[in-house]
């Protein structure tokens, strides 16, 4: 993992990408290490004074085709970021001509596949369903947490809390999200989803992302919601999942939870020495 507490670079090339509006600044550190002090990460995340992102992702060399490290907008780290992984996988496929990749993350080794028609699939790994693995603060039934709304707890390399509701648009996520992100049951905080079932293969969901806030989409959250719905018997294991920013297909297979959708490489640029010096 690139260090957060060493001197910042003088200039910093970056790419801006998004998956369904879930947006990322991506830094390629394969040629040389790129130190990222916490102040710099948070400065880049600012949508008025910086570039703005939901997550910052760093590509570095690993045992597979590349290693990925993720930072949230508040400077904290995350073991998993599904949409950023898909975006970077598409970039690496376009760069190398490969149609299959193995990407290493803190979450584990993630397989990526070109699904055709501009779509990219990622295996996000097997879900964590035991309370200690998510993790929760104490032993409890992860299928029905003892709190208002009886949400489902799921781990996808990061913790999730899924509420099934009658109307996702009636929930004020700006209020609902932070209350549950910091719930005492989640010692590492949690991503919060509200989900509405439209059929056995169709879910509508909205997301409050840990360390970020309201997001248009979240890959790991989408996987968690699909797993939660299947465990509750509300859907099958393959679903269309409509988020504020677009649609993903989630398929919970024996080898893991596969996520398929579109990606976009918006722009490439360079953070100036003036900007970096102002933060370090």
Primary descriptors:
Diaminopimelate Epimerase, Chain A, domain 1, globular, 5 helices, disordered N terminus
Indicate the mean pLDDT: 94
Number of domains: 2
Order of helices and strands: EEHEEEHEEEEEHEEEHEEEEH
The CATH fourth-level homologous superfamily of the largest domain: Diaminopimelate Epimerase, Chain A, domain 1
Question: Could you characterize what this model shows?
Answer:
It is globular, with a radius of gyration of 18 Å. It has 280 residues and is α+β, with helices and mostly antiparallel strands. The protein has a 17-stranded mixed beta sheet that branches. The model is unreliable at 1-5 (pLDDT under 50). It has five helices and 17 strands.
